Every structure is written in C-alpha cells, then in structure tokens.
Write a sequence for this structure.
C-alpha cells in the first residue's frame, strides 16, 4: 500500500516522471484501477449531502463510468483525430496514466462538509483535469501541452453531453464528477 500511496501523492503533485513510469509499466494497471475506485468512492461519499445514502451508489457509479468514458474518448480523439507524428499509445497506457490522474479526486470525500461540498468538488475537478492533461501528454507522447489540453477538453465536453442526455432520459442525478 505504501507504493500505491506514494504514487498517488506523486500523481497529485503532477510529477511527470510518475506518469512516464506508469505508462511504461503494465503491472501498474491494478494500482491505477484502485486509484479510480478510491476516487469514485470518495465522490460517492461526498455526494451524501445531495443524494443521501443513494448518493454514494449513484455518485460512485457515475464517477466510474465517467472515468472510463473519458479515457476511451481521450484515447480515440488523441490517437485518431489529433495525433502528433510521434504519437504511439495503446489503450492500456492511457488507462494507467489517466487512472493515476484521478488521484486528486480522492479529496471529493470532503464534499460531505456542509457548505463546502461544491467548492471541494470544483477544486478536485480542476486539479484532476490538470493531472489528466499531463497524463495524456505523456501517454500520447505529445510535445504540445495545448494539444493535450484540447484532447482532454473535447473528451470532457462529449462526456458531459452524453451524461446530460442520459440523465435527462432516465431522470436527474448528480452532475458527473471528473
């Protein structure tokens, strides 16, 4: 567990070397998934104030689905629509780096604090987005940070639109966390 917590802290500190390390090491997929689950559970617990006990389940599932959807979209957009000449990546590399980019999302557990929940979710979301840009830049071997920002933002917008459609069809729900 010490290695996992160390990697999560390095990911949250936006350590570029950490993202290179997990991109190259296929054995870190389990750790990356653990980070995503912890971050998703934190989002679910942080949603208790808005959705009660059911908010944990809905928030956790929404966060997990959102992470995978965003990872898939990012991979597809980054490798098919906006690759750089040296871009070479597989889905696993992106899943591992983006998994660790979810590390700041663990802070969403503090969303249970009355009056601060929305602010905490906003800060954790922005921090996660910055980590995601670094993860994408490293996993897709981009030289251009603006290109990585573009890939992440396009993927995020598509994800938000899909969640908006789903929630409008199946009923309300929490805003999808990052």
């Amino acid at each position: 567990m010490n290695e996992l917590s160390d990697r999560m802290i390095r990911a949250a500190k936006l350590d570029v070397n950490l993202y290179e390390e997990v991109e190259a090491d296929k054995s870190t997929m389990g750790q990356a998934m653990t980070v995503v689950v912890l971050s998703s559970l934190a989002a679910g617990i942080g949603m208790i104030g808005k959705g009660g006990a059911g908010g944990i389940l809905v928030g956790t599932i929404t966060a997990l689905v959102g992470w995978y959807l965003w990872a898939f979209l990012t991979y597809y957009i980054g490798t098919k629509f906006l690759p750089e000449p040296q871009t070479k990546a597989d889905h696993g590399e992106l899943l591992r780096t983006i998994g660790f980019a979810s590390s700041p999302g663990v802070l969403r557990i503090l969303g249970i604090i009355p009056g601060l929940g929305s602010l905490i979710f906003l800060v954790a979301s922005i921090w996660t987005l910055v980590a995601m840009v670094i993860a994408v830049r490293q996993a897709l071997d981009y030289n251009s940070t603006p290109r990585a920002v573009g890939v992440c933002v396009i993927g995020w917008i598509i994800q938000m639109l899909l969640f908006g459609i789903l929630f409008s069809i199946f009923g309300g729900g929490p805003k999808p966390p990052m």
Q: What stands out?
A: The CA atoms of residues 66 and 176 lie 7 Å apart. The chain has a mean pLDDT of 89.
